[in-house]
Write the structure tokens for this entry.
Amino acid sequence: MSVKKIAKDDFAVFVDALIAKTSVIGVQAKGDRFDFAPLESAKNLRLDYDVTLQPPKKYFLPPTEVLMTFEIGGAYRSAYEDEPFVLLGVHPYDMVAINQMDELFQQDNYDAHYMKRRNNATIIACDVVKPSENVFASSMGTAVVRGGYDVLLTDIGNAYVAESGTPKGEKLLAGMKGVTADDAALKSRESVWAKNKKGLNRHELKCDPAYLPRLLDKAYDHPVWEERARTCFACGSCNQVCPTCYCFNVQDDVNWDLQTGKRERAWDGCLLNGFTKVAGEHEFRNQRSDRFRHRLYRKAKYVPSKIGGQIACVGCGRCVAACLPDIANPVSVYNRLIDDQGIG
Amino acid sequence: MCQCCTEKKDIYLPQLATVVKAEAMNVTERYLRLSMDDGQFDYIPGQFVEVSVAGIGEAPITITSSPTQKGGFELVIRKIGNVTNAVHNLREGAKIGIRGPLGDGTYPVEEAKGKNLVFICGGLGLVPQRAFINYVLDNRKDYGEVTILQGTKCYEQRLFVKEVAAWEKRSDVHMLETIDEGHDCWKGNVGVVTKLIPKVKTDLKSAVVLVCGPPVMYKFVLMALEEYEVPHENIFLNLERKMKCGVGKCGHCQINGVYCCMDGPVFRYSDLATMPEAI
């Protein structure tokens, strides 16, 4: 795979040419914050962003999507969205999250709806320029990513270093005006990586993330769950902004003709009241503390057991910012357990 | 299945089945015999299907028939939620959507061979258990003694009354039944199902015990089985959870680290030791 050095002006020209050809989703300012949105011009692209309000998961698992259509009393027909698009400006921690989701949606039962979108996506990732207020990717080992993207961009000040990660990315890179990255450029990129590996750490986890599943083995009855959940609104904001939360609900919607309709899936959240409620009103995780604990166990124990031990918290810090009562910060919970239980 | 077929298959898409027979069992339970329109349907006792009513939604229901009995499969559905209410309105000949069979955690069909079996059922719990009971009776020589304990809340709610009576008459089945509240027409045992456990003639310690009933029943049954020192590896429980996808994606049925839809719905009790949410 090749590595190129591309002048920032030349990259803007490339982006505008890309927009003319295909649908491009890029990071843009939204008030004084940032978010992914359809990109109309390279000048709106903000690769110097700190963190987006929403992770890019919505482009693979939309807040609501039609799974199938039906006729009352007739057959069900699968519905797929099948449009290629480019996702521009994915940070390494979000890329790690996408890589994890790819694994989860393919394993055991292949989810063709998710994968259709994923295969239609071309991802241009970019290294972090400005750390966000709550990022802790350095603690989670997700400050730098080597895989999953088609192209990885690193801002080295006066230019970008662009490296392809797939044949699709290689083709894209061929269309960018630039020169093969020289040693100086590669060295600058190394220093960006070295800086980010340490510097994206506003909340410092007191252990290696690989230890978290074992930490939780002994923490099930710890008072921290009840203490934190006492002020939990059960609003599900932490679920909504999380790049690795993918639980969903499925519901039917009948059209006005009362003959046809569609079955849709929509994001759901394990913190919400009713998430585990069955007909007959029995709710299996009725207590907020049970739901709060479930989320943190899912991130650092349950999901990791399905994806080779990778921790399903990538340190983006979005839940820390989104949580009104300020209880969601996973690092502070895990650190509290380390303080009380020690390591080992 | 090869990779390209896997990618083409939609795991959420129901296939059509026809309601071959439908009848009320009592005020809340309805019996359905279904036949897949494409004819194909192989399953193992303990597996469930996602029943789909277009415009209403899906509900997970365990199959009550045994795969040894040909000509479609049977469900018993309690009228309790949106989908199940809609199912109660379906008449013979109606179309219904089915996904499945689902669930890798089935009854220990192979493991239980040669062993004595004790079925403990509470109320609607008879419905999933019946799949394995009839499987065992259709392969009678493969299994040891068969004991069935059935507890029902009240006389009117008793299910499969004729079938239970037929089991009662068999010399190779020890059938014990009780109802929670006495009734003028009832001359049998009165009280909860755990009261029947001391009457079991089979040596419980070496038996395979299969339990299915409402969540509240499990605690008491397990406490009673503890007294008889039944090894936890020999106890199998059928767990219920909210399910949406049924294929290990949507997250609703998670019990600690496992998915009820994928790893269950039948679990070995000893496997539940690390799952405090299970019971």
About this structure: The radius of gyration of chain A is 21 Å. Residues 42 and 320 of chain A are 31 Å apart (CA to CA). Residues 3-56+81-199 of chain A form one domain. DSSP finds twelve helices and twelve strands in chain A.
